Amino acid sequence: MPREWDASSYHEVSTPHQDWGRAVLDRLELSGGETILDLGCGTGRITRALLERLPDGRVIAVDGSAAMVAAAREHLPADRVAVVRSDLLALDLSGMPGIPADGAISTATFHWIADHDALFARVRAQLRPGAQFVAQCGGAGNLAVVRPLIDRVAERPEFAGAFAGWQGPWHYATDEETAAKLDGAGFEVADCWLQPWPVTVADPRAFYATVILGAHLDRLPAERHDAFVDAVMEVVPEELDYVRLNWVARAR
What value does the mean pLDDT of the chain take? Predict the structure, then answer.
């Protein structure tokens, strides 16, 4: 299963994710009665915004983190949202009401998954022909300034043993390779593009510890977490140089 998250902290600090999610929702064409998948739903903040556009529809919200799923179930109406815990690479919603679904969205999730060929194939298997697939995640060039600074901290003697041979947790794909993979998985791609989206957050330390460095901290003993986050905060800039990978596609 995917790694665990601090759902409570994520719910508080994920303001940029809500902005990205609203941009995804704006690209979704809905009549109001569809069943839509929210893949990587987190604590359900974007899921709730999606529900507002589905007065007669429903959402199947999926996340791999038990803490995120528990929080989403707490925040979302059970009569209109089915919250499912699943690794997206093993996603199988067959037998659930509304499957195959009318569409799928995702926000800030897919860059945590290395195998996009398998991922897109699993998404396609849950959708009817003509279903929309509208998503956004980190793309090529994402955090290009920040990541080398984190790597240098990880190379310090007091931390290096935990990161030896590790390639990092992210897969930041290009728009060209993503469009090709979507096509190969059975999607007609209307658009696929990279979008610089610099962000300055209200609580940088909490944001780094929860959103950016979580996978790094998983490799360290708990007593070294604060020291690693403190060391990173000493060297990173105030602005996060985010680049978002977006696409709008339909299942063939």
Answer: 96
